[in-house]
Design brief:
The complex is a heterodimer of chains A (393) and B (354).
Chain A lengths: L7 E5 L11 E7 L2 E8 L7 H5 L8 H5 L6 H16 L7 H30 L2 H22 L8 E2 L2 E2 L7 H23 L3 H7 L7 H7 L4 H4 L7 H4 L20 H25 L17 H6 L1 H12 L7 E9 L2 E9 L5 E7 L1 H6 L2 H5 L4 H11 L3 H5 L1
Antiparallel strand pairs in A: 1-2, 2-3, 4-5, 6-7, 7-8
Helix pairs in contact in A: 3-4, 4-5, 4-11, 4-16, 5-6, 6-11
Chain B lengths: L5 E2 L6 H37 L15 H11 L10 H17 L7 E8 L2 E7 L7 H22 L3 H32 L4 H7 L17 H4 L1 H14 L11 H4 L9 H26 L9 H22 L5 H29 L1
Parallel strand pairs in B: 1-3
Antiparallel strand pairs in B: 2-3
Helix pairs in contact in B: 1-10, 1-11, 2-10, 3-4, 3-10, 4-5, 5-8, 5-12, 8-10, 8-12, 10-11
Classes of the chains: A alpha+beta (393), B mainly alpha (354).
Chain lengths: 393, 354
Amino acid sequence: MAANTETMTINMGPQHPSTHGVLQLIMELDGETVVKATPHIGFLHRGIEKLSEHRTYHQTIPLTDRLDYLAPMSNNLGYVLAVEKLLGITDEIPERVQRIRVIMTELTRLKSHLVWLATHALDIGAMTVFLYCFRERENITDIYEKVSGARMTSNYFRVGGLADDLPDGLEGEIRTFAESIPAHVEEYEGLLTGNRIWQKRTIGVGEISAEAAIDIGITGPALRASGVDWDLRRDNPYSGYEDYDFEVPVRDGCDTFDRYRVRLDEMRQSARIILQALDKLEPGPTLADCSKVVLPAKQDVVNNIESLIHHFKIVTEGFKTEPGEIYQGIEAPKGELGYYLVADGSAYPFRMKIRPPSFVNLQGLPQMVEGRLLADVIAVIGTLDVVLGEIDR
Amino acid sequence: MVMTPEVLTLSETPWLFSGVMLVKIAVAFVVTLLIVAYATYAERKTIGRMQTRMGPNMTGPKGLLQPIADGVKLFFKEDIIPAQSHWFAFILAPMMILAPAFIAISVIPFGGDLQFTYDGTLYAVPMQITDLNIGVLFIVAMAALGVYGIVLGGLASNSKYALLGGIRSTAQMVSYELAVGLSIVAIFMLSETLSMRGIVAAQQLPLWGLESVSFIPNWYIFCQPLAFVLFVVGSMAEINRTPFDLPEAETELVSGFCTEYSAMKYALFFMAEYANMITVSAVATTLFLGGWGGPFYGWINFLIKVFAFMFFFIWIRATFPRLRYDQLMYLGWKIMLPLALVNIVITGIAILLW
């Protein structure tokens, strides 16, 4: 009797507990072995790129919060840097702004990595790590709230500076938190790294070679775990990252386990950067001295006719830029987040193209899972750390 | 004057015998149900504490009414039978999984003899519903029957996730039953009986018959540590608990074989899981930890040991990730089965030599 070799097609998602949002995977299964996996995206498309064409440059900042909603400040930073580059005011950003931006984006990296570790561990079945990570993430969310008033959609950075200075006493709080991070990372490692089951589930799973990763365009921790030493913070610094002493963790296992270790090491390095930035943080202005771009202080708006006019013009019309096109990439928690802006001289971008790291990294999924088991698909989705808000925009 | 207690038999005192039996069944059933309900509460509280959160604390004092509230909620939920399912098998499955889990309780001895006087005669009643002479085999058989419920539920749902869950559990249970069954064989070889009561009695003697260490009981965990480990690991796999909860791996198969179930039918699956946990803990206690023997009064010792086991299972759930399907099969067939066989051979040689 010939064996029945029919494959089964199964829809994983968009309603599935571990596709991290509304990712749909159409999988052909032979038993539990994946023959073919096709990611389907677009369930969370909100047209952020198109919307930005009808908004002034400042009005787009809140939209960027909703790209990678686990790392809103990184999205803010990339966008703000791109507009500043377009305006040519990159060098005029005050030092305090640069420092606070670094502190907040590194906190954001921690926040994003904590959610990644939480959900990745939960997907593989380690339930407790999930809650431990969310305990620490809660602290970051509290810091977010104190800084910007919102716990997730921060909308904190501005073109030319920040929405506001850090509230009193927050520096100490951030310092205490950053100092506690290495101990917490040890705690997660204690539950996972040496665990035989965790190792069995991650070592050799979802392998992708350095060449393949570069061909696809994978960036971030996923690339660095394939042995490619590439980090924009060091190799193409922005926001004064060249001032800090930090290591770029690189491993060459190419698998889920090494991506896990790279991200944990990155969390330790982020804490280091935050502490250095806090040491270097000095009082100063939180907005650049560009009256055509940044909103004047409320005090001046009330007492000074020129400031009132600037305020009125910026709020109603926005600021105009020179025609041109620029690209600004930053090292977001998930990889290279790029903003490509085409300006036609008006107060609106002619076109904004976002290069989301999750979208590009997701392309690696089919070749990482095909020929492997269903349970590995879950591990690979987790290890790629995709966020659908960013993929679908 | 010391009277020798009479053993209650059906032929001599039919009415008294039947009455006592019914009371025993009722007590065992109700107590098991209560433990099932509060095992869910204990699990949520314990894991909550382990995960730096509260667990249920709103329903009743300290959340103690939570299991009842859950039961009431599930009872009043809409009972959905998918249109494409095989309705008869779909309804049958939850019963088929719950019934064996409870039936297995019937051969477990909870304590020693209970003595009472009726009509001037002193009777001794064992605290066990029935003492089958093949008690252990009976439990293994019931555990095997429970698989049908899962397979049937997976197939009848006509859903791909449920199907995968059903297939996983078939493979898993078949593989681990072997290891569990073989690990118990070593116990029979030592006790020379299959009766649960006989096995407990054999464990009340001093360790290895040595009078010098008479304070250590002859629990089989001491002379069969390997069998104990195999039994506990295999049982965890058989009752589908972490790290072997593949059939209902939430993050992979949504909810596995019970994906399509709702309301009371889902509750039955849930209860069966906890009832199985109790059964397995009780069997492990009986076979390896000397049953009701210990410093306190009979059934109190027994319950303490059972609860310790259940705490262990809950603890494991808070600690470990889940194995993968192929790794599970590897562990079952290539590690546990040979180890169980080796254990039998070693036990046999030891018995021959001493």
